[in-house]
Recover the amino acids of this structure.
């Protein structure tokens, strides 16, 4: 069959727009500069140009001292993450033109990732993150019940088991999620999303036998500190949804009985109270979460209410829809148990 030749008039020519843009880049050399400052670079940006191409163009034509990190240019090595207009992105896979259009102005601001020390300009030190990751035992420890003794035999798993962690194996350690994390910002000891993604990836693997140690390591590094703001989901270039891994890791921590922290007590209080009363027992929450230390918060809240002429109560009433809520909980537990059994039996 002869190939249909398209008439010249019907050929689609991609529109290649050009905009003279102002590229505002944060500069900083610790030990030399007192504090970070901004340099402005004017350049013509074309449709399709990535942030990395823009940075390379500036380095090649305007300022060779501009420092940034990149290797693969294919969204694989994870080394080029920076912040563009405050969003953590991979420079090599993010085009500038749509950002300029979204913000409706010919200017863009590029800064280094947050929550990590700056080495120079846009290059940050990821070592503290890797140190946190190392504490999570990010490797498989053989589960003798699942891994055959003979080398020539494969270690099989069901599709359902694989689905639990398959997407997490795509993590490229770019640390965009770590940079976006509001909990890391307030608590530098918190392990952060990428380390828990890796911990969950191995803990969910049926060939592994080390999940309790990993849960303990995650607990020691603030597993329950995550506030589920889901910023890590928004920025992850590989759609890994780190906040979901954190939620799953917490679930494992409850299953294996390693979960006695204020964060886990709060989560338990929310689910138990909603199941039992249809609402959270807010007046008593500080004590449920923090033990006897919580009384001071309760007394302060009660004093505040009395000052405004209100009578405080420590009782939570049962809401009218509670019976329906309890039925929903029972159904969810039934589905979860069924899925768990299917996952364990179907190998
Ligand atoms: S969801 Fe949790 S881990 Fe993700 S950015 Fe928010 S606080 Fe950090
Ligand atoms: S989870 Fe996503 S954002 Fe975080 S390091 Fe891995 S690939 Fe990057
Ligand atoms: S240069 Fe490797 S991910 Fe961007």
């Amino acid at each position: 069959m002869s190939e249909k030749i398209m008439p010249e008039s019907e050929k689609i020519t991609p529109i290649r727009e050009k905009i003279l843009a102002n590229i505002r880049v944060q500069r900083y050399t610790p030990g030399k500069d007192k504090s970070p400052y901004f340099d402005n670079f004017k350049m013509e940006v074309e449709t399709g140009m990535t942030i990395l191409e823009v940075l390379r163009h500036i380095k090649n034509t305007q300022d060779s001292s501009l420092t940034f990190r990149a290797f693969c240019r294919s969204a694989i090595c994870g080394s080029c993450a920076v912040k563009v207009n405050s969003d953590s992105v991979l420079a090599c896979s993010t085009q500038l033109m749509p950002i300029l259009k979204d913000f409706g102005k010919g200017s863009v601001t590029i800064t280094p990732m947050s929550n990590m020390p700056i080495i120079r300009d846009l290059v940050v030190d990821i070592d503290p993150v890797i140190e946190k990751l190392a504490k999570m035992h990010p490797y498989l420890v053989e589960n003798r019940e699942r891994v055959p003794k003979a080398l020539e035999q494969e270690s099989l798993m069901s599709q359902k088991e694989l689905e639990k962690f398959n997407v997490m194996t795509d993590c490229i350690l770019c640390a965009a999620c770590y940079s976006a994390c509001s909990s890391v910002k307030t608590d530098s000891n918190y392990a952060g999303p990428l380390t828990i993604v890796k911990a969950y990836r191995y803990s969910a693997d049926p060939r592994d036998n080390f999940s309790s140690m990993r849960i303990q390591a995650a607990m020691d590094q603030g597993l329950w500190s995550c506030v589920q703001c889901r910023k890590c989901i928004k920025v992850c270039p590989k759609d890994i949804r780190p906040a979901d891994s954190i939620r799953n890791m917490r679930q494992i921590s409850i299953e294996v009985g390693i979960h006695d922290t204020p964060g886990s007590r709060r989560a338990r209080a929310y689910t138990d109270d909603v199941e039992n009363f249809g609402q959270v027992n807010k007046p008593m929450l500080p004590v449920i979460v923090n033990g006897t230390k919580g009384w001071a918060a309760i007394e302060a809240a009660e004093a505040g209410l009395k000052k405004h002429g209100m009578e405080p109560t420590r009782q939570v009433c049962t809401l009218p829809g509670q019976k329906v809520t309890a039925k929903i909980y029972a159904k969810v537990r039934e589905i979860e148990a069924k899925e768990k059994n299917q996952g364990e039996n179907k190998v």
Remarks:
- Residues 70-73, 75-80, 90, 92 surround FE2/S2 (inorganic) cluster (ligand 3) (CB under 6 Å).
- The mean pLDDT is 90.
- The longest helix spans residues 322-345.
- The chain has three domains: 18-124, 127-255, 262-345.
